[in-house]
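Fold it.
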Amino acid sequence: MTQTIGELLETAADRALPVVRGIDDGQLAGPTPCAEYDVRALLNHLFLVVVNFQALAAREDVDFTQEPDFVAGGDWRARFGDETARLVEAWSVPGVEEGTTGQMGLPARTVGLMVLGDLTVHAWDLARATGTDFVPERSVLDEVGPGLAAMAPQAREMKVFGDPFPVPESATAFERLLAVTGRDPGWTRGGTTGVTGTAGATGS
């Protein structure tokens, strides 16, 4: 049985939250697999994604051109937990996957899978950037993998994905997903350069 976006996001959030909560303030200026973003900038980007996709679930307008500094002041780790809980709640409303949403009028479930992809891939980015482990749940990977692969050609035209990173035949499903977005699955701090495009896993 196909899981709902709300169920999938709850599963993905359970894996992402320990990564974010484990980030030390001294790591905020460090590099990430997204070459144009340090840890702080990527956190702010992910915050914006989580907040804006709550609005998209409610069929409200969003603006991705402005990225406030969510990390400035207060307990941003607790706030990230609160915002992801609101994201799960927003995408668990009955009927939320019906119809379309967003400026491009995409099917609502497709939009929900986009934020699922961002939450999953950026959790990996942050984990690699801060020296922690991250592996998505299989149910999430099974939904996100085909979705990102399908949108990859258009994403590259929009300069959201970098060129696909070459991986061996022995690569895992998650390594292949990361490679599709332009990421080097073997990226480490101070090692390879990683993504050749922007931080957005799905154009958000």
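Confidence is low (pLDDT under 50) at residues 192-204.
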